[in-house]
Amino acid sequence: MPSLLITALVFGTVFAAELPDNSGLASLVLGTRFRPGAAFAGAAAAFALHVVLAVTFGSLLGLLPHKIVQIAVAVVFLAGAVLVLRTDDDDDEESRLKADAAGFWAVAGTSFAVILLAELGDLSDIVIANLAARYHHPVAVGIGSVLGLWAVAALAITGGRGLLKILPMRWIARLAALVMVVMAGFTLAEALR
What we know:
193 residues; mainly alpha; 9 helices; globular
């Protein structure tokens, strides 16, 4: 199979797998709190690192028991919900002033750390590892995966900025936390079956 076709197939698969994911929600919240360019730069670097790790070492994730991976993912969702709600206590205007005062590297570093932690043991890591094993073309799989993840981050960050024009940050944070709790519940229910 030609590498361009593999890249396109991987892009579509990873994009679809990542859309409803916790890192997409994290990107959305980052986009509402910080300058979009800096938030995207940090998220893009974290996603690139995850792709390298998933393609290189991803086959080891397949060796872990599926239930343990799902329980870990549920815990990450719940932790993300708690973190989002903890920042929800800030006054919207005060939060925006603090975020605007943060420099590019501070925002990019925060975004990198949040996405790096949100992606640990994530479904997209497993999907990327499986795609790398299936197609035996790590470069094409890596490029398709990175582009898919970056597209979701860009969509979430710009969507978050647009959403902020309609809803106050407090409601966006609560909505994101609720979605994370629901996703944790579904993941945990599936793990305990």
